[in-house]
Amino acid sequence: MSSDLTSTAADGAPHVYGSSDAPDELNAALTGGEVPVAVYGLGKMGLPLATVYAEVTGNVTGVDVDPGVVRRVNRGGSHVTGEPGLDDAVGEAVAAGALTATGDGEAAAEAARLHVIIVPTLIDEGNEPDLSVVTEVAGTIAAGLEPGDMVVAESTLPPRTCRDTLLPLLESEGGVPREEFGLAFCPERTSSGRALEDIRGAYPKIVGGVDDESGRLAELIYGNVNSNDVIRVSDATTAEAVKVFEGVYRDVNIGLANELGRHAGELDVDVTEAIEAANTQPFCEIHRPGAGVGGHCIPYYPHFLIQEFDVDSRLMETARDVNEAMPAYTANAALDGLLNEGVDPADASVLVLGLTYRPGVDELRATPALPIVEELSSAGTDVDAVDPVTDDGEPFERAGAAVRDLDDVGDGTYDAVVLVTDQPAFESLDVPALGPEDRDLVVVDGRQALTELRGRDGVAYRGVGVNV
Ligand SMILES: NC(=O)C1=CN([C@@H]2O[C@H](COP(=O)(O)OP(=O)(O)OC[C@H]3O[C@@H](n4cnc5c(N)ncnc54)[C@H](O)[C@@H]3O)[C@@H](O)[C@H]2O)C=CC1
Ligand SMILES: CC(=O)N[C@@H]1[C@@H](OP(=O)(O)OP(=O)(O)OC[C@H]2O[C@@H](n3ccc(=O)[nH]c3=O)[C@H](O)[C@@H]2O)O[C@H](C(=O)O)[C@@H](O)[C@@H]1O
Fold it and tell me: pTM score > 0.90 for this model?
């Protein structure tokens, strides 16, 4: 039994779930600002998402537990760096009164009729999915849930979470029968550095509802938010699987690339050259070997299946093992290189270039740079570390490194340089000039970014996937 058609919630906002208003009327209500929206989580993905929702609906309250984030947004600014256009877009949305931010999630939930969840979904030390933040936010939403409301989860979730966890939680804590509110999973398929472009419509939007009406509503909502196609799949669990499959495909593919890359020495070929050539026909898309797989997405998503389901997942597990071994492999390429140059690692000084998990994104979760620093430090080397993209050097200092400014390392002298993350700012660095006078500088190129140094006088080049 769905809620009444054009009935309204206590605050006068139109019901959306179960409304038998024609789609055009619902679209008009949504884009006319009659449906208050709350977006929970204003991080790398949440702030761009809230901003695009504000552009479309004109009536968005962003919720974040970080008071600094709330203050910054309400001043019309973005704390998220490296997102072209985001600062201006946030400023315009706030100036237009289309976007405000608050730390009071319950008040926002009371006022909203469309609730969007985009908070972190991480894994714990045992690699178990950690849904504590998502369930906390669902509890907050439940406190303000009304018949006719719609809840959309955009945070990446283990398949079945909407059906088996969020739906019963919202119903029991919200006191609203599940037949009277909607819940859909509509994954965020966005890369940092191009978030606005992606959210606005770089790719089709996947949506899946816990019931038919939720799926219908999600399709209508994202028909307004995303200029690309909206692909409605059978249900929320299918949509959750789509997102996790995308990430698992990438992790397994990178695992293959890394395993192939480790053949470079014995094959005596540049494996990345072979991969690029192999990829010139449409049935091959081998990814790139590298120093490791970081971020809170690709290394985490396989565990949303491995840990959550009983089915044999040895391929996903093996790919995880291969990728998790790459930081040690990279560090050992440096240690081995030093020994080749007659340098005892315990007497060596090593410069690590790049600490964030990938270029341009200030995110350290699962970064391969940390285990690389740990491995080098435990071999007794003096480690300097530099990355202009992040100012959070504390984890690397705890691991034994001295975190330096890029300007300071230019005239340093090192026995080895290890490039882990190829920040654009490193373009200006004359790496060979960092070496000692009386022997070759060991260069370990973790991202095939320094291949021009291969064969250079004064440089002992070791490229992951290139010649090691
Ligand atoms: N970062 C990425 O490239 C992508 C991330 N995703 C997914 O999006 C989700 C969010 O990821 P990010 O935005 O990168 O995370 P983030 O760590 O950049 O931001 C999370 C934000 O949520 C806030 N927060 C934490 N607890 C909260 C609570 N109880 N209520 C309200 N706000 C709270 C934090 O203060 C922070 O501002 C994750 O599920 C992730 O898997 C999906 C696609 C791309
Ligand atoms: C399937 C897919 O491409 N997912 C994207 C991914 O973005 P993310 O920011 O995690 O970056 P990424 O390019 O996957 O890199 C992750 C890690 O893997 C490494 N990496 C990446 C590609 C590669 O060929 N080799 C490699 O070693 C990177 O250095 C990085 O440490 O995960 C995002 C997410 O879901 O959070 C997703 O929205 C993005 O579209």
Answer: yes
Q: Which long-range contacts (CB under 8 A, 24 or more apart) does 434-443 make?
A: 434/351, 434/409, 434/410, 435/459, 439/341, 439/342, 439/343, 440/341, 441/414, 441/415, 441/416, 441/417, 442/334, 442/337, 442/338, 442/340, 442/341, 442/415, 442/416, 442/417, 443/416, 443/417, 443/419
Residues 165, 166, 172, 173: is their CA dihedral positive or negative? positive
Asked whether 61 lines ligand 1 (CB < 6 A), one says no
Pair 225, 254 in one domain:
no
Dist. CA 464 → ligand 1 center (Å)? 31
269 and 140 inside one domain: no
Domain hosting 200: range is 3-234
The first and second tokens of residue 240, run together, are 């959750």
Q: Please, are residues 178 and 150 in contact by the beta-carbon 8 Å criterion?
A: no
**For the chain, which ranges sit under pLDDT 50?**
1-6
pLDDT digit string, tens, across residues 172-216: 999 999 999 999 999 999 999 999 999 999 999 999 999 999 999
Q: What is the pLDDT of residues 126-172, one digit of tens each?
A: 999 999 999 999 999 999 999 999 999 999 999 999 999 999 999 99
Q: Which amino acid belongs to residue 430?
A: D
Q: What is the CATH number of the domain that holds 79?
A: 3.40.50.720
Compute the distance from residue 102 Cα to the ligand 2 centre, in Å. Answer: 31
Number of folded domains that form the chain: 2
Q: Which of 322, 358, 420 to mutate to test the pocket of ligand 2 (most atoms within 8 A of CB)?
A: 358
Active site residues: 243, 297
- Helices assigned H by DSSP within 145-270: 161, 167-174, 195-197, 212-225, 236-261, 264-267
Do 314 and 226 have their domain in common? Answer: no
ipTM above 0.95, yes or no: yes
Q: How close is the Cα of 294 to the center of ligand 2, in Å?
A: 8
Q: Which residue, 234, 268, 301, sits at the end of a domain?
A: 234
The protein residue whose alpha carbon is closest to atom 36 in ligand 1 is 43
